[in-house]
Amino acid sequence: MGKEVQRALLWVILIGSLFMLWDNYQVYKGGESFFGAAPTQTAAEEKPAAATIPMGNKDAAADNALPQVAAAPSEPVVVTTDRMKVTFDLNGARVVGSEMLLFPQQASWTEVGLAGKVLGKTPAPDLGNVHLFELSKSRTYMAQSGLVGGEYPTHLDQFRLVSSKLEMGSDEHLDVVFEAEKGGLKVVKTYRFTRGNYGIDVETTVTNEGTTAVKPQIYYQITRDGGKPAGDSSMYSTFTGAAVYSEEENFQKIQYSDIANQDASFIESTDNGWIAMIQHHFVSAWIPPQGEARQNYVREVGQDLYSVGTLVPLKELAPGASETTTATLYSGPQEQQRLEQLAPGLELVVDYSWLTFLAKPIYWLLSFLYGIVGNWGWSIVLLTCIVKAILYPISAAGYRSMARMKEVTPRIKAIQDKYKDDKQRLNQAMMELYRNEKINPVGGCLPIMLQIPVFLALYWVLQGSVELRGAPWILWVQDLAMPDPWFVLPLLMAITMFLQIFLNPKPADPTQAKVMYIMPVVFSVMFFIFAAGLVLYWLTNNILSILQQWWINKTIATERENRLRTHK
User: Fold this and answer.
1) CA pair distance 115, 109, nearest whole angstrom
2) Backbone φ, ψ for residue 363 (5° rounding)
């Protein structure tokens, strides 16, 4: 029975490895990862109030004439801070460009190192920086706001630039002011930039210059095309789409396909939370005033063009009265500590898939270790040591079972030869041997099985945490979130796996033996396309396991010699 269980576990590990390899191949072809698939959404009814928000010319967009509707101004307003360069369109004073000055675009791993040489590829000479908001013939991504409830200024109406200073320089703050009048209302938008921050405080002051009382509504929305962001890797699948957060329903992803099919499910009426567009490592979000009733909505506003927004009622304005409301527009990296401080739940945009409960503590521990050693690679090494120490009692018991199994292998072979024609007697004799020698036949699999959840969680941490983007370790490893460019770490890992095989008892079953020798090859091939930080974790774990197993084997051998000496 023990032999059958061990064989089954070996096949499970092998099949699981092959499945992960297949999953990554599907992603490479442009499909979606099995582990990263978004939950199925149910239908939601569109609220009529959201339909009053101007959409632009949908038909024009379908005819590839969208730039005529959402065209960048002939003289764009460009604001430069210490962290980003933001471009405004005078149509609606909307944000149509944001360049991340501290985040350069990354070359594909297939263009560098050994893969680049084999494939004959080289990275572009000037990749530039990451752009979030962008308005061009190939990309539509912008932040908009305006007033509805009458013929009031929207994101399609012309605004005037009031400010003259557009560079932050050495100042701590920079205010950029736009204004417009329409329908008896004067609207003043003030964008306040703060040094060291990606969040922009957007103050909107509405003044009733008419003769009758009015009660407008203000909307905040983000519009984006359904394409993948520039530089997005085809080797892994990450979520790109809309999101809504509220205290009532927590974090809700919304696929573009669900918006197009009117199948999106999300909280519509609430008085808290935020709306966002998410992509790998970056996010753009509107955070309206908390505690005020609002209505969230999503819409398809053109061919492969989608909006997510929220509609907030303002107080009734008597003639001559004014009201000021402030929201925050964030467009930048998914830095978790920064996002946590900005709004409740905003850190959830970091996609750790279904292993968030385990990935978040691992990220916290990695960050803590990074604060000590100042290098993410050595932080991963220390993390591996800590995990190994925590699991030491269990893994030690497993390795002791494996060592004793190796010791009694000749006796197992003898029992198999003796009862080869009587399966029942064979199983009874094997179980008796295991009991007498205090051997757990599956104990050797426990160390590996216990590492798998940590391994998968670390996979998502390395893939989802922008802090690890471009993080170097040593020498040739200059980005722990990308595959090893020279495949040194996967080869070293394969070598350590073969060493472990020689330290373990050789399976009596030829099929098991073949599986054991195939596994290092399968893992090394699979790890060629995995993040270098992930391979570093597994390699370090293997080295520690080899040392632990060698020491236990030596201890058991010494104990055996002492027993034999005592019996003499």
Assistant:
1) 7
2) -60, -45
For residue 80, give the amino acid letter: T
Six token digits for residue 487: 């495949």
Q: Comparing C-alpha atoms, which of 228, 217, 205, 210 is closest to residue 150?
A: 217
* Coil, strand or helix at 181: strand
Q: Beta 160-161 vs 77-80: how paired, if at all? A: unpaired
Structural domain includes residue 26:
no
Tens digit of each residue's pLDDT (9 = 90 or more) over 4-52:
444 444 444 444 554 454 455 444 433 444 444 433 333 333 333 444 6
Tell me whether residue 164 is exposed, middle or buried, using C-beta atoms within 10 angstroms of its C-beta: 0 to 12, 13 to 18, 19 or more. Answer: exposed
Boundary (domain end) residue, out of 323, 349, 375: 349
220: tokens are 């905040």
- Residue bearing tokens 């050693």: 373
pLDDT in tens, 314-367: 999 999 999 999 999 999 999 988 898 999 989 888 877 777 788 888 888 888
Question: What pLDDT, on a 0 to 100 scale, did the predictor assign at position 372?
Answer: 92
Residues 6+ apart with CB under 8 A from 447: 391, 394, 395, 398, 399, 545
DSSP character string of 293-344: -EEEEEEEEETTEEEEEEEEEPPPB-TT-EEEEEEEEEEEE--HHHHHHHST
Contact 78, 95 (CB under 8 A): no
> Judging by beta carbons within 10 Å of its beta carbon (0-12, 13-18, 19+), is residue 196 exposed, middle or buried?
exposed
Residues 256 and 310 placed together within one structural domain of the fold: yes
Q: Let me know: does 231 contact 214? Beta carbons within 8 Å.
A: no
pLDDT above 90 for 472: no
Dist. CA 145–CA 160, nearest whole Å: 15
Do 250 and 384 lie in a common domain? no
Question: Helix count (H) and strand count (E) of the chain?
Answer: 15, 19
Written in H, E and C, the secondary structure of 383-439 is: HHHHHHHHCHHHHHHHHHHHHHHHHCHHHHHHHHHHCCCCHHHHHHHHHHHHHHHCC
pTM for the model: 0.76
For the chain, the domain total comes to 2
127 and 267 share a domain? yes
Q: Which amino acid is at 330?
A: Y
Other beta carbons within 10 Å of 459: 22
Provide the residue range defining the domain that includes 550. Answer: 2-19+360-559
Residue 280 shares a structural domain with residue 372: no
For residues 155 and 108, give the distance between their C-alpha atoms in angstroms, rounded to a whole number. 37
HEC string of 355-385 equals: HHHHHHHHHHHHHHHHHHHCCHHHHHHHHHH
Looking up tokens 């200073």, which residue turns up? 165
Give domain status of residue 27, yes or no.
no
Report whether 405 contacts 506 (CB < 8 A): no
Contact 44, 266 (CB under 8 A): yes
Do 378 and 283 have their domain in common? no
Task: Specify whether 309 is located in the same domain as 428.
Answer: no
- CA dist 463 and 351 (Å) reads 9
The domain spanning residue 155 has which CATH number? 2.70.98.90
- Of 330, 349, 368, the residue that ends a domain is 349
Q: Do 238 and 205 fall within a single domain?
A: yes
